[in-house]
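Tokens as discussed.
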């Protein structure tokens, strides 16, 4: 190539680049003009006075019914049970549109990433996942990639995706899952990224279709959102204000699950203890709901998560009656030091937490208590951290989920100066985890020689001649038994306790599973 040709060729390349850049800018501005509805954490923080509207009219419009025929979908789920359950609803909607589920990401026609915003590392995982899908979009431009869940509610995340992840076709939030058919249609028709995120929560939408992940255990949402605004937490921003479902809708759903043969349900909410407070005209709380559900013939009922602040005596009484409400309470404490609890905005003290624990233990002597703890809160001192350790010793939790504090943009704690170095935080987490392991192992070892009731869920991951399942206190048990026991509650004699699981010998199918209170 001579000098002239070389010059011409580089002009061509530059031309191409310019054209591409011009097109991209045009496309990008198009999002803002037509499609892009930016979420706003500031808006999301506002709590209006208007009461919750219940939408009972959800149905799949006729025009969307065949949208998914001959197409497949895959949903990757991060985060908590709330997200896992939202995934079941999205799978329900997609199935109603005619899509088939697949496990193969390389052939899926719709790929949804249901994201979690709770800590920075949760978000990083999602970004690397979306990055990994870039090649897939190049090879199969017709495949649709969607980002949904809690990260979609953050403006910084939406802007980052718009700027750097052009392989994404749609972003939608936690409040408009029911709009999935319309969002998909727009994504098929539009070349630009479809962004539909509502900063303010909408109605409580009933009658959404669901494809549940299993036929033994089921999630049941009893409320959405959170108004607690713990200073570190992004959830009140990503999930909106507290909205309770009507008792009759919940009870009907649970009755339906009982009829279908489900053995266990978990009632879900970010703070289930607030259940019912927002429903006008009735005086009905979680205690009442638990009492009504305890009359339904379903062997096990769990609920999560309980904020220690508004755990009522009524609730303790109902759990103490036994019946189908399991003797396991997850009661996140976060810290054992009053000053830290205060700046966390948790609204209880070490003393009042311990009082509640004592009350629970007195009323329900065989209760299993588990918790969540954050270490390395901004400016947490060594002495304050030691108080978390000593609280752990006092309560003797059977297990804990432990985290290093992660700064979340838009939360009050993000403005706090933090003088605790990362390696100190890591060392605290390690010290705490040592304690957690010690008490978990101790709790497990108590079962050796005992007979426990296990809800048998399937074969063990490692050995398919071994069945596995959980006790009412959520201990994993492995044992050999006929496969016909899957889905049943069985008696198992524990032979060996390990750190996170128990090994045992099958005795028989449990004779009596529900004791009516
Ligand atoms: N609604 C539940 C908690 C949901 S988030 C409750 O209040 O109990 C689950 C756990 O994640 C929290 O209990 C807390 O321990 C942890 N967490 C939340 N925000 C965090 C943050 N910014 N950094 C570290 N851990 C956090
Ligand atoms: Fe977050 Fe606190 Fe609400 Fe739990 S109660 S979701 S920690 S704000
Ligand atoms: Fe994560 Fe949202 Fe749950 S931030 S923990 S998925 S409510």
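Sequence:
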């Amino acid at each position: 190539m001579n000098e002239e040709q070389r010059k011409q060729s580089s002009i061509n390349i530059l031309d191409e680049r310019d054209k591409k850049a011009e097109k991209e800018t045009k496309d990008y501005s198009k999002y803002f003009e037509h499609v892009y509805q930016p979420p706003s954490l500031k808006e999301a923080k506002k709590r209006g006075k208007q009461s919750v509207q219940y939408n009972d009219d959800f149905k799949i419009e006729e025009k969307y019914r065949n949208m998914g025929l001959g197409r497949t979908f895959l949903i990757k789920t991060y985060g908590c049970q709330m997200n896992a359950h939202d995934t079941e609803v999205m799978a329900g909607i997609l199935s109603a549109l005619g899509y088939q589920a697949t496990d193969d990401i390389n052939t899926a026609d719709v790929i949804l990433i249901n994201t979690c915003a709770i800590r920075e590392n949760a978000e990083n995982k999602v970004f690397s996942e979306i990055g990994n899908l870039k090649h897939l979009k190049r090879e199969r431009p017709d495949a649709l990639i969607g980002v949904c869940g809690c990260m979609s509610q953050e403006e910084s995340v939406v802007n980052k995706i718009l700027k750097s992840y052009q392989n994404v076709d749609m972003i939608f939030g936690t409040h408009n899952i029911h709009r999935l058919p319309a969002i998909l249609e727009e994504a098929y028709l539009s070349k630009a990224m479809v962004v539909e995120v509502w900063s303010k929560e909408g109605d409580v939408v009933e009658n959404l279709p669901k494809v549940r992940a299993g036929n033994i255990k089921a999630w049941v949402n009893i409320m959405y959102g959170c108004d607690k605004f713990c200073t570190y937490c992004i959830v009140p921003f990503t999930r909106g204000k507290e909205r309770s479902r009507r008792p009759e809708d919940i009870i009907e759903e649970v009755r339906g699950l009982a009829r279908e043969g489900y053995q266990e349900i978990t009632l879900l909410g970010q703070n289930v203890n607030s259940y019912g407070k927002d429903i006008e005209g009735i005086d009905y709380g979680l205690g009442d709901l638990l009492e009504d559900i305890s009359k339904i013939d379903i062997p096990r009922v769990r609920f999560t998560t309980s904020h220690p602040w508004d755990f009522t005596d009524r609730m303790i009484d109902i759990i103490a009656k036994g019946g189908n409400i399991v003797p396991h309470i997850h009661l996140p404490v976060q810290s054992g030091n009053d000053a830290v609890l205060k700046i966390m905005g948790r609204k209880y003290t070490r003393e009042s937490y311990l009082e509640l624990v004592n009350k629970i233990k007195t009323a329900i002597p065989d209760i299993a208590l588990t918790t969540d703890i954050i270490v390395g809160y901004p400016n947490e001192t060594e002495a304050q951290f030691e108080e978390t350790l000593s609280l752990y010793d006092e309560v003797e939790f059977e297990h804990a989920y432990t985290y290093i504090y992660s700064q979340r943009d838009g939360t009050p704690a993000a403005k706090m100066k933090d003088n605790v170095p990362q390696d100190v935080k890591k060392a605290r987490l390690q010290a705490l985890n040592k304690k957690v392991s010690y008490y978990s192992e101790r709790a497990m070892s108590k079962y050796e020689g005992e007979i426990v009731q296990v809800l048998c869920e399937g074969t063990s991951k490692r050995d398919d001649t071994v069945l596995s399942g959980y006790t009412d206190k959520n201990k994993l048990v492995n044992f050999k038994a006929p496969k016909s026991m899957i889905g049943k509650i069985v008696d198992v004699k524990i032979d060996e306790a390990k750190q996170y699981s128990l090994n045992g010998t099958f005795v028989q199918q449990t004779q009596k599973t529900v004791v009516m209170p």
